Structures are given as C-alpha cells and as structure tokens.
Amino acid sequence: MVINVLTFLIYLQQILTLFIMAIGIIPKHQEEIPLHALPPLEFLTIATETAKRLNWTIQYQSLSGFIAQSDTSIINSNSKIKLFIEGETATILSESTGGEMIDFNKNKKNVQAFLSAFTTVQSGILPEELSVKLQGLYDSLDLTAADLLKVSAESATQKVKNFFSLFIPKRDFFFTPILVDLNLLIFIAMMISGADFISPSSEILANWGANFRPFISVGQY
C-alpha cells in the first residue's frame, strides 16, 4: 500500500477544519440594531438595498430578514451574513465560511460597512422610491413557505454528531468515508509504530510502502 504522509497531513488539516466548522468555533461578529420605531418591512427594504450596494449576494430572504454572502477577493474568502429582525431589534451576524481560525477583523468590518452604508441608503432614498421597493420586496417573498431564519440553530451536541457522521458509510455516501477512515487508521498506526508526526524518516516511509524507486525496480508493487 502506497503511503504519502503529506497527503495524510492534508487530510488531517481538512478534517480539523470540518470539525471546527461543525461545532461552531469559527470567526464571527454580531451586533444588534435598534429599529427606532421604523416598521420592520421598511427596515428590511433599506437593509436589502444596503446589501446590494455592498455587492453582497442575497441567497435567502423572508419577512424576518435575509442570508447573504459577501463578495470574495484574492485576499479574503467570503463570509455569510445573516440579518434577523425580531420585535424592535435587528441582529446582523457575519461569520467566516473559508475555514480560517483568524479573520483579521474581516467580519467586524463587514458589519461596520453595513451599518455605515445603511445610514447612507436610508438618508438618500425618497419616500416614494422606498414605497415602490417595499412593495416589490413584499411581492417577491413566498409567504407560504417556512421561514428558515426562524428555525432553531443546532445544538453543539448535534453539530458534533453531524461531524462524526461524515466518517460513517451510508448508501449514498459509501466509499469516501471508508477511504478517509482507512487513511486515518494507517496514519495513526504509523505514529504508534514510531513515525514522526511531521517528518517521518525515509526508512519508516519505505517500510510502510512509500514509492521508493530501488524497490520498484526489483518488482515491488
């Protein structure tokens, strides 16, 4: 069996990233916004126009708010932005989706950019224009569908269970978990046998089936 330790390290990094994202330990920033007697639908209309001005892609929208994605640059991966209106307060949350552990204030900047742009949009939109956009937004919503923004968030326990389910073969997800499990087991076995976690010796790699030309030339496959 051919073993490539670098591949194992990549697998391990990806698995750790999945685990971190699954249990919710990802960079995020959240702030509450008082509506100040502004009707929720008017606030949502202005917030929607603000998201468009920031070039965010709105992926889902309801009377309660929206879920959007920030634009992606060469330097920064995108973020998921969630706006949720409840009572006299709106909550805006920006969280990373690229698997990074540190966002260098990217999510805070997203929220601050929204707050600044919201003020600009609100002060610049005429009442007649706001009324037209409000009606257009209302007409575009499917009021008969369940509001995804009101669905309760998964508990940490459920998130952990969902993560570990990735390693269990299922009828429609069978071979990938088996391959990942086998790679992890072999990697663990190598560590137990004395292989260095970061830089195993050439002898250990050869003993575990690494691609070594002199062995191949004499018929070892």
Kindly describe this structure.
The protein has 221 residues and is an alpha+beta fold. The protein has eight helices and five strands, in the order H-E-H-E-E-E-E-H-H-H-H-H-H. Strands 1-5-4-3-2 form a five-stranded antiparallel beta sheet. 16% of the residues are buried. The mean pLDDT is 84.
SSE diagram, text form:
Elements: H1 5-22, E1 28-34, H2 40-53, E2 57-62, E3 65-69, E4 79-86, E5 89-96, H3 106-124, H4 127-140, H5 156-164, H6 175-192, H7 202-207, H8 213-217
Antiparallel strand pairs: 1-5, 2-3, 3-4, 4-5
Helix pairs in contact: 1-6, 2-3, 2-4
Outline, from the CA principal axes? Answer: elongated
Give the strand line-up of the largest sheet.
Answer: 1-5-4-3-2
Taking the alpha carbons of the first and last residues, their distance comes to: 8 Å
Rg: 25 Å
Quick structural summary:
This protein is of the alpha+beta class and 221 residues long. It has helices at 5-22, 40-53, 106-124, 127-140, 156-164, 175-192, 202-207, 213-217; strands spanning 28-34, 57-62, 65-69, 79-86, 89-96.
Notable traits:
alpha+beta; 8 helices; 47% helix; 221 residues; single chain
